[in-house]
Amino acid sequence: MSAESRRLDVLRAIVEDYVATQEPVGSHALLERHQLGVSSATIRNDMAVLEDEGYISQPYTSAGRIPTDKGYRIFVDRLAEIKSLSGAERRAIETFLDGAVDLDDVVSRTVRFLAQLTNQVAIVQYPLLERSTVRHIELVELEAGRILVVLITSSGRVEQRLIDAPSRSHSDVLNDLKGKLMVACVGQRLPDAVERAGLLAEEFAPADRKFVTVVVEVIKETFHHSRTDQRVAVAGTSNLAHLGTDFDATIRPVLEAIEEQVVLLKLIGEAAVSQQTHVVIGHETGHAGLSSTSIVTSHYGPGDEALATLGTVGPTRMDYPATMAAVTAVARYVGRTLADG
Amino acid sequence: MSAESRRLDVLRAIVEDYVATQEPVGSHALLERHQLGVSSATIRNDMAVLEDEGYISQPYTSAGRIPTDKGYRIFVDRLAEIKSLSGAERRAIETFLDGAVDLDDVVSRTVRFLAQLTNQVAIVQYPLLERSTVRHIELVELEAGRILVVLITSSGRVEQRLIDAPSRSHSDVLNDLKGKLMVACVGQRLPDAVERAGLLAEEFAPADRKFVTVVVEVIKETFHHSRTDQRVAVAGTSNLAHLGTDFDATIRPVLEAIEEQVVLLKLIGEAAVSQQTHVVIGHETGHAGLSSTSIVTSHYGPGDEALATLGTVGPTRMDYPATMAAVTAVARYVGRTLADG
DNA sequence: AACTGGCACTTGGACTTTATGAGTGCTAAT
DNA sequence: ATTAGCACTCATAAAGTCCAAGTGCCAGTT
Fold first, then answer.
1. What CA–CA distance (Å, rounded) separates A102 from B160?
2. pLDDT tens for residues A72-107?
3. Chain A contact for B291, CB < 8 A?
4. N or C: which terminus of chain B has fewer CB atoms within 10 Å of its end residue's CB?
5. For C3, which residue's CA is nearest its C1'?
6. Across the interface, do A256 and B236 touch by the CB < 8 Å criterion?
7. In terms of C-beta density within 10 A (0-12 exposed, 13-18 middle, 19 or more buried), how is residue B17 classed?
8. Does the beta-carbon distance from A142 to B150 stay under 8 Å?
9. Which nucleotides of C are covered by protein (CB under 7 A)?
10. Which residue of A lies nearest to B154 if distances are taken between CA atoms?
11. Could you tell me if B155 and B132 are in contact, meaning their C-beta atoms sit under 8 angstroms apart?
């Protein structure tokens, strides 16, 4: 065992102890709780090096050490052993969606379950329209000149929008358009479907084109609007107590960030770059209010498709292996359920 | 001015000062900030009586007084003068819904606006189906044998449900049913509409009745399901900071109550009994975790119809007149907007 | 009878002082 | 490279001291 590898052992021990006790950990505590095979003086030397390298720090002179964001990062990337879920947890995951009736129900059950499982704030993003395929498009004439456009996606999401048609539309034109839209769009991913719909106007007589264009425009807009209107469900905010006792300094900014969905979606989107379960630690979020929180996310969707993201927000001093295991398992199970319908 | 009425003036002054300063108010402070026309000794005598009657209390011996729940109650019911909104606030209310595209948009804008306006946690309940009227019913045949039922209410809410039709339906039967449903249900309140729909089966040939019955059954069920599925939107949870600094004792239970929608809906439903803007103070909620919060609610809906409830949750030591004015004004404006569509 | 001025008494909060002990860094020895 | 020993640091907790705000009560006044 080289000195280098022992230093990493020390770092791992510090992270584990700090997560467990929530208190700065000193050389003596490490000696007692871990078999490192060296004396406390040696550990102190190692800690001095680790501090130089930026993995740990002291809250104040002559206190124990706590991990820095960089320290957690290397812990997550290289040091942590994957924790497997307990039997009870596994059983709970298999059943928490039993009897769910629709997409809203699935999402709200999932977010509550994940919050309870991890004891953190859970976040579940609704399936993204842009990654779904079109199952059905319906054009319904309500009163004279008002048309309801309904768009149903493969993931069960239903978007609807009302149009005030500019010219009164002959209902045969409407039916014709509906038929052509179905042929062109069903089974297509949404961005492709929108593009194809855009080309349809040319297939109509010049007199009807204006009407067709308006309808297609609204469909485009519905899609576009929903891109910015990415909905998320949140649960377990009372678990923010784990962050500390100072509401204004630590908890409030996090609550604000969570309500400000812009921030949330940016972080979730960031994670979308990578494939697997993904961890963003403290300052890596790039958001001052979240500097003492970490975010664990994973994708979900039927099969390998990544429809959307779910995850948790908790203190940087969280149990990463357990949280990652829970998030990964829940994401996989929800994805599988969505595949069945 | 009788002694009795002066005592109530003293109580009003205590509530107002305590709300403004968040600190127990003593006889001397009252003397300075209000024109009561008597000396501090007299005020002290009055305060002793008010304490005997249970309207105020001392946090500890020889401190100033703070209002009890009972004190706030009489303040709200009899002592408070109705505060009118500032010009800026009125202007903000007139515009915050400009450009809203659908019901979700209206609700989420409203809840955010109300939170910002009152600096409290805002809650907006989605329009209740059972109080809405039917604007449109659509039956759409997707693939073979699968039918989509879409129900659009006057408030803009859209409910949809998928049916696996038992027998393949002739599309002319479907159209016939659709026409009859529209005639029977449009403009009806939902409970009435469901009842009328139930009678339709008899108008069809015996061979088609089974099919009709299934469709009607699903419409009934859609309605019934949504009754339990009363959705609410929440915003401004970070304003809970006003409750105090002790997260675990005061803020956490409130967050939990808010997430536990059962509690929320019970309180909102309770308020539904009365007509006007309604206030529930502290222990009146009957929920231990909410013992230091008050809830101000009001109904909203087009015209006089009460479609649903909205309101705020804040500390018992809130500015009741201002909060009530804000909640009332927002409810009225949202109701008017909903009437326009 | 109601109000007021005066006064002794209470008490939490703010501030200071003093231990305590966990923890470090350094140096010299192995 | 590791370890034992030791002087030093510093947050936290406990104890002590002040102080100002506030009360209740009583005797005197209107």
1. 10
2. 999 999 999 989 999 999 999 999 999 887 788 899
3. no
4. N
5. B42
6. no
7. buried
8. no
9. 2-6, 9-12, 22-27
10. A142
11. yes
- pLDDT tens, position by position, B58-94: 998 889 999 999 999 999 999 999 899 999 999 999 9
> From CA B61, how far away is CA B264, in angstroms rounded?
36
Q: Which two tokens stand for residue B324?
A: 């009530």
pLDDT digits (tens, 9 = 90+) for B182-225: 999 999 988 899 899 988 888 888 888 888 888 888 888 877 76
Tell me how far apart the alpha carbons of residues B270 and B288 are, in angstroms, rounded to a whole number.
17
Task: Please state, in angstroms and rounded to a whole number, the distance separating the CA atoms of residues B106 and A270.
Answer: 29
| Structural contact between residues B313 and B120, judged by C-beta atoms closer than 8 angstroms | yes
Q: Tell me if residue B189 falls in helix, strand or coil.
A: strand
Q: A144 pLDDT exceeds 90?
A: no
User: What integer pLDDT is reported at residue B141 of this predicted model?
Assistant: 78
User: Which one of B157, B247, B258 makes the best mutation probe of the A interface by having the most chain A beta carbons within 10 Å?
Assistant: B247
DSSP letter string over B50-72? HHHTTSEE-SSTTS-BEE-HHHH
**pLDDT tens digits, B142-198:** 666 778 888 888 887 878 777 777 666 667 888 888 889 999 999 998 889 989 998
Name the more confident of A43 and A266. A43
Residue in A136, A142, A158 nearest the CB of B142: A136
Contact of B300 with B307, CB cutoff 8 Å: yes
Is the Cβ pair B252, A238 closer than 8 Å?
yes
Task: Note the pTM of the prediction, 2 decimals.
Answer: 0.90
Q: How far is A340 from chain B (nearest CA, A)?
A: 15
Q: What distance in Å separates residue A149's CA from the closest CA in chain B?
A: 12
Cross-chain Cβ contact B148/A148 below 8 Å: no
